[in-house]
Every structure is written in structure tokens, then in C-alpha cells.
């Protein structure tokens, strides 16, 4: 008689709703390679494309942050110091913290 074994997995996406219940008749589709436990923490990282509706602003912030890091000689040649920080302002719930992450 075959014994039952548990299988651990992390849900990345559900369809159709944001919340779901895994029941005995639930169909689970696995795609891609299994994720190693040590790589699992990276799944929770926030990237530029996780912030929706602010594409233009993200492009400006990205340029402001990445340009001095990629081309420091550009700032040295014209004698300008690169910015040391960015001030994000706006009403609560506008995504400032998400952008900062």
C-alpha cells in the first residue's frame, strides 16, 4: 500500500481570485523548475515592475538613481556631485513606500 507524503509548495498565482482554498479536488499546476529553499526569499523582493500606474515616474527615479552608479565619470567631468537621496512626497496610499523599496 502506497503511503501519503506531504509536498510543500508556495502559491505564486491564483485564478480567478486573489484568495483561494486548497481542497481535495483543487487542481494545482506546476510550471518551471522547483525553487530552492535558499532562493525562496528573493520571491518576496519588490522590483521596478511591481509598482503599477507610475511608469513615467519610475523611469525618472530609476534614471536619477542608476545614472550616477553606472557613469560616475560623467558627474566628475562636469564637476557636479550626484544626488545623495530622493524625497518622495504625496498623500497616504500613493505608493511612496512601495517605490522606495
Automatic annotation (TrEMBL):
InterPro entries in the record: 26S_Proteasome_ATPase, Cdc48_dom2, CDC48_domain_2-like_sf, P-loop_NTPase
Keyword terms: ATP-binding, Nucleotide-binding
GO molecular function: ATP binding
Keyword Nucleotide-binding: yes
Pfam family membership, one: CDC48_2
Membrane-traversing stretches: none
Domain CDC48: 4-35
The protein's name in its UniProt record: CDC48 domain-containing protein
Amino acid at each position: 500500500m502506497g503511503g501519503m507524503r506531504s509536498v510543500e509548495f508556495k502559491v505564486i498565482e491564483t485564478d480567478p481570485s486573489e484568495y483561494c482554498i486548497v481542497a481535495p479536488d483543487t487542481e494545482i499546476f506546476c510550471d518551471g523548475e522547483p525553487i530552492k529553499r535558499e532562493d525562496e526569499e528573493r520571491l518576496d523582493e519588490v522590483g521596478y515592475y511591481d509598482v503599477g500606474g507610475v511608469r513615467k515616474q519610475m523611469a525618472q527615479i530609476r534614471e536619477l538613481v542608476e545614472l550616477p552608479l553606472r557613469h560616475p565619470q560623467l558627474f566628475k567631468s562636469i564637476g557636479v556631485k550626484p544626488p545623495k537621496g530622493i524625497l518622495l512626497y504625496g498623500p497616504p496610499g500613493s505608493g511612496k513606500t512601495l517605490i522606495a523599496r
